Amino acid sequence: MYIKCRGEFYSGVRSPLKLHRLLHLIWNHAKHLAGYEQQDAHEFLITTLDVLHRHCVKAMNENESVNKLPPIAKINCPTQCSCIIDQIFTGMLQSDVVCQVCKGVSTTIDPFWDISLDLGEAEHGGASPKTLIECLERYTRAEHLGSKQKINCSTCNSYQESTKQLSLRTLPVVASFHLKRFKYSKDKKIDKKISNFISFPVEFDMTPFMSEKDKVYGDFRYSLYAVVNHYGTIGSGHYTAYVRHHRDIWVKCDDHTITLATLNQVLDSEGYLLFYHKNILEYE
After folding, report:
1. Which ranges in the chain belong to alpha helices (H)?
2. What is the pLDDT of residue 76?
3. Rounded to the nearest 5°, which phi and psi values hold at 91?
4. pLDDT value, residue 75
5. What pTM does this model have?
6. Is residue 112 a contact partner of residue 45, using CB atoms and an 8 Å limit?
7. What is the sign of the dihedral through the CA atoms of 95, 96, 97 and 100?
8. Each residue of 29-41: pLDDT tens digit?
9. Distance between alpha carbon 27 and the CA centroid of its chain, in Å?
10. Which of 136, 140, 137, 143 has its CA nearest to residue 98?
11. What is the Cα–Cα distance from 25 to 19, expressed in whole angstroms?
């Protein structure tokens, strides 16, 4: 499916590319997204990446089995995967839990395809973020877990209070940010939309959010590539998207209508999903 879509994209034919086969593939693997009712764009993104990831891994493993070579990756293990989806979208998230008595650190590293960022007020007070950078600063800030979430410290051999801090161990080629505009109730139903304006830059450096920011080597500057917007209310909303066509040319995608857009229109929009690409690619 991926190879076929890519072939059509670079075929030179100037007629619009209709990804109906891709949509049908997603519907077949995610029945809850099938049909023409309004669905969540973030859920659709993650489902699409997952379906394509599994499709690519299955194809690669079948190819390797024909040639009697070891499997490339386990289906549910993107950390070991060399498929095109994980080459582009997968980064590594580091979580450090620090015991407040002995200062021992427990570190876990997990893959991610996107980063979901809170927009509301902080749990212990504080203003709501107004920029993407402020969202990332809050996301990577150390959090005191409190007496109700004590950890079993192996050094102290007892339950102790701790702090938890997230940071980015490695960065993907395309960094995807999900601004959490929909607030869910306890029964997991959307009961509120956060329409706060969140400004986002055309370019920015991700180095301050890295796990070892003082030791990292490379260029971690990113440029805005696409924005998915949600307008309206929970029950009657509408999705549109802005995509950068060339370096300084933006287009607006509104259902079947595609029109030219200005950079100011992009930056003034109510972003829901933000996509940035790495300016300089490094190869192993």
Report:
1. 2-9, 20-29, 41-66, 84-89, 132-139, 263-267
2. 42
3. -120, 180
4. 38
5. 0.83
6. no
7. negative
8. 777 777 777 778 8
9. 21
10. 143
11. 10
